[in-house]
Amino acid sequence: MSRVAIQDQYPDEFSHCYGCGRLNRHGLHIRSYWEGDEAVATFAPTAYQIAVPGFVYGGLIASLLDCHGIAAAAAAQLQAEGRTIGDGPVPRFVTAALRIDYLKPTPLGPDLEIRGRPKALQGRKVIVDVSLAAEGVLCARGELIAAQMPESMNLGHGRP
Amino acid sequence: MSRVAIQDQYPDEFSHCYGCGRLNRHGLHIRSYWEGDEAVATFAPTAYQIAVPGFVYGGLIASLLDCHGIAAAAAAQLQAEGRTIGDGPVPRFVTAALRIDYLKPTPLGPDLEIRGRPKALQGRKVIVDVSLAAEGVLCARGELIAAQMPESMNLGHGRP
Question: Taking the CB of residue A139, how many other CB atoms lie within 10 A of it?
């Protein structure tokens, strides 16, 4: 398992993401690690990131699966190029589609366990199965379609 | 168009949602209004809610579509019961599934225009078409399956 977080290898100009950018001071700082065929992450929600008292907010779950799935896509792309996490900048993907089934209410308290398994590389796209569990119980699962970032999104400026 | 926000009619114990709860001091405070056959909302992202500089964070878009779609489902259920927003507590739905297609990068700057149109009431579920636009340009669209909140989520305590 790589001890370098995938998101920490994004180029500086693409490291401002609210979900996972190391340069976003206000963000969630999601950190994903590559384990050879899937990415793994853990996340500890804060007390106010809830839907109703005692249960984690679904929009946070979507955010976690989004940034984590994007990282998994980037790692799969790197691996397909014969590279490894830590050997240089990681390609930046964006989300083309996200589908989530919320299977059970996600309890607030335990660390959340997030997995992303790339299952297909199709040109500029990578399709990733994503899931989120709490104490080993699967709470949400879905699929993310990641696309390599279009050049139109590289404005080359800005810092939150 | 009702001038009472749907979310402001949720019972107190279900008004702590990070996305739309009036009692969550840290939350996004999404506010949705019913227009007879669809719910509408606007939202102004802050400078740090971005994916890359200049473009809105996809996890925020998911959060907006989620809370807004849930509000639309609740309003449709009320209307089916012959009630109107403002005449008493609104039933609390939760998200069973959320599918989003991100059609274009969403620019940071203009207010976001969010719509939710319920298209089917099926027992305890409501299916809602959701969309998000900026300056009239459709940036994301999707579908939400809302389910009436199971009794197991009513812990009857907690305040973020």
Answer: 21
For the stretch B58-80, pLDDT in tens is 999 999 999 999 999 999 999 99
Q: Which residues contact B62 (CB under 8 A, 6 or more apart)?
A: A59, A62, A63, A66, A98, B98, B100
Whether B24 and A48 lie within 8 Å, measured CB to CB: yes
Q: What length does chain A have?
A: 160
Look up the pTM and report it.
Answer: 0.96
- Give the one of B27, B59, B102 whose C-beta lies nearest to A48's C-beta: B27
Domains of chain B: 6-153 (3.10.129.10)
| Residues A26-82 pLDDT 10s | 999 999 999 989 999 999 999 999 999 999 999 999 999 999 999 999 999 999 999
Which residue's entry shows tokens 């299977």? A103
Residue A3: Cβ within 10 Å count: 7
Cα angle value B135/B49/A132 (rounded, 5°): 115
Confidence of residue B159 (pLDDT cuts 50, 70, 90): very low
* A63 interfacial to chain B (CB closer than 8 Å): yes
Q: How far apart are CA A115 and CA A130, in angstroms?
A: 6
